[in-house]
Amino acid sequence: MKIKDIVNRDIVTLNNCEHEPIHIPGKIQPHGFLIGVSSDWKIDFCTDNIFGFINLSHTEALGKNFDAVFGSEAKQQILTYLTTDKIQNVFPLEMTLLGKSFQVSIHTSHGICILEAEPQFPDKEKLADVYTQTIQFVTQMNKTKSLKDLCALVAEGTREITGYDRVMIYRFDEQYNGEVFAESCREDLEPFLGLHYPHTDVPVQARELYIKNQLRLIVDIDYIPVPIFTVDDEENKNLDLSLSILRSTSPIHVEYLKNMGVGATLTISLMHHDRLWGLIACHHYSKKNISPEIRLAAKLQGEFITSQIDIRQSNDEFINAQKTTLALESLTSLDVPILQESLEKIVVSPQLLDICNAAGVCIVSRKKFYKNGLTPSDEEIASIISQITSQNNLELFSTNKLHNHISGISQNTNVAGIIYHSLGNNDHIIWFRPETVSEINWGGDPEKSIIKDQNGLHPRNSFDIWKQIVKNQSIRWEQYEINASVQYAHTLHNHLIMIMLSEEEEKYRNQSEILKETNSELENINWISTHDLQEPLRKIQMITSKMLTEPNIISTESISNSLKRISKSASRMRGLLEDILKYTRIKNTRDTLQKVNLNEVLKATLKEMKETIKEKNAVVEYENLPEVYAIVFLMQQLFINILQNSLKYASTERTPIIKITASQEPVIMHHLYKVHCHWIRFSDNGIGFEQEYAQSIFKVFTRLHHQEQYTGSGIGLALCKKIMQTVGGDIHAEGKLNQGTDIILYFPCDPEDTLNQIAL
């Protein structure tokens, strides 16, 4: 029978050091010995130091049946231990092997039963002592509130139980860089609290083993590894020691600990949601071993931390989360109208920043930017949105390192963190946080964790504090802040949908009103065609018929009078037809609106009506008029119709006076969808009217007086209303009988509001 060792002699290089097979070193630490038993109970693996513990060499043991070497009673003890319904590895099996007492840790690996025997501790602690210490710790633990306080208590308690010189609670970040989160150490030692260590200090394969085997012990850093031997019956034979308590450590890790001056270590994994959250790292500055009972007590300390992480983190976050919740409730209960302009009120609400503790916010809706607080320029915000949405069409994106994800952001822009949400329909909301320059104290240069020289690879040997200034990042967004932003983004999305539905409803309502008005106009046109147009036609027909039937009787003077009457009737028909044509043309006009100076329009109108005004001996007074978005020729038609109306209905008892005034600054008109408007008022001292007719005078062909009193078609003011509707404005009338009439025009200041009004 041939025997060989399974020591892994692969050379570790810079290219493969992160994949060093530390789970199959083929050797163990010398404070115990190892036996590997196959499924048929043959001894297939054995360390060559077994002779130092019992009167047996590895060559004598390998290939033999276990019970032939150690007896059937020992075999039965192991079988009972393996089959008993209890948690494995809580306590090792106490048994006698060839007359010597051992504490044997047992586990299986790929069909091999691995027995790791350590001499029984002569002064091993009793369970009662461990229980007492645990009760005392739980009592103190309940007095702590924060996670940091709990970790500090665990560090202190673990050092008291184990007797190590230094105990650290080591916490990982998302990239597995470590931070000494809590510490208890001898007074003469330099504290490591607050120091950071790069992820390379605990490489990937080491983290995987910490997850599998949650307690790791190195009794003496200066140990000489003991090789494992096996029966040479297959190629590349090895033994997975992932769960081993005696497994030999990577030589790079041993050198790392020696460089720190450490003599012995105990490491306990802290698991949280199946992820390696951190470690309890115990260092001693000379060799040190501890009994299984103390190991268990130390492991329980780790269980206390991991069982409390969610509770303590929740407690730590509770106050801030409560503020966020209150801000969210306050924001969602804001009484805002279902209008696009409500975004102006929403964006300046302090609660919008409070819900995720942001310094700035921007709502982008209908290509308009509503901003508050610290925000980039509109161009930069548009670029951020474009780049985020191009990345798999993301609806939610958050980062505290904006410059790592988005290009084209100016270095002068003091924004480093964002939470972005899509609101649908090309609408968006983004919260911003400023750059927070921070200083990180590393335990040595993080760029030199592994050094290569002529003798191979070595861990760094300097652990002097290395200060690093970190820029271009903000405070990290907490999950409860992101959750609150998600909730409000959903609320805001619904609000924007309600605005759209409200506008659509208003649009259809107005279209319905327009349809009703159009039907009414058609009825009026039908009436005018059957009455006002037919009446002069009847006169023309009657007069011409009489002239034709009595050509020899009618005198020249009678013919002349008849022709004058015919001409007058024809003129009235032509006037009616021209007014109807003007009305229908205005109704179908949709020219592009331009900025119009109403002062120039008024001057042109007064020049055109100069003779009419002089004939009426009227006085027109006016002040400076604003610029509005309109159509020039329609404004001239509008002013002519209003002035003609005032002159037509002037009082015979006084000189006609027409005053034209205007708002010099925009005002908010609540009855016009709360848009900003300019108003222009035409006031006269004519015959006036009863206020109850203020709406009806704008209806087509509506007259308040008989045709014999005041001539006209009744289209003039209806024409004015159509013009104002065309430019997105409105018109109102105020009258007092025998005192005068005021015609007020409203022009929206924003061309978008004007176009929206036209659309409605």
From TrEMBL:
EC number, as in UniProt: 2.7.13.3
SMART domains according to UniProt: GAF, HATPase_c
Keyword Phosphoprotein recorded: yes
UniProt keyword annotations, A-Z: ATP-binding, Chromophore, Kinase, Nucleotide-binding, Phosphoprotein, Photoreceptor protein, Receptor, Sensory transduction, Transferase
Domain Histidine kinase, first and last residues per copy: 528-751
Domain of life: Bacteria
Family classification: In the N-terminal section; belongs to the phytochrome family.
Protein name: histidine kinase
Lineage: Bacteria, Pseudomonadati, Bacteroidota, Flavobacteriia, Flavobacteriales
